[in-house]
Amino acid sequence: MSCIDVKHLSKSYGSIDAVHDLELSVKSGQVFGFLGPNGAGKSTTIKLLTTLIPPSNGTLSILGIDAVT
Predict the structure, then answer these.
(1) In CATH, which superfamily holds the domain spanning 2-66?
(2) Burial letters 23-43, b for 16+ CB under 10 A, else e
(3) Which residue among 23, 34, 37, 61 is the one 20 to 30 A from 4 at the CA level?
(4) H helices of 1-69, where?
(5) Structure pTM?
(6) Shortest CA distance to 55 belongs to which of 2, 18, 5?
(7) Are 21 and 8 in contact (CB under 8 A)?
(8) What residue ranges do the domains of the chain occupy?
């Protein structure tokens, strides 16, 4: 079972896609990170994963619990 499971997660600001169709699965004990240039959506992705901002589309579950609704 995944601790974090993300399917088709997207965040748009008007016509700008900050994150588009993200798929991610993190298992217990697994370590991961985000690398990319400025404006790639790293900070937005972390804010989505921590539920600081709501996604425009997609699902996010943490320990099997829906974190979007």
Answers:
(1) P-loop containing nucleotide triphosphate hydrolases (3.40.50.300)
(2) eeeeeeeeeeeeeeeeeebbe
(3) 37
(4) 42-49
(5) 0.89
(6) 18
(7) yes
(8) 2-66
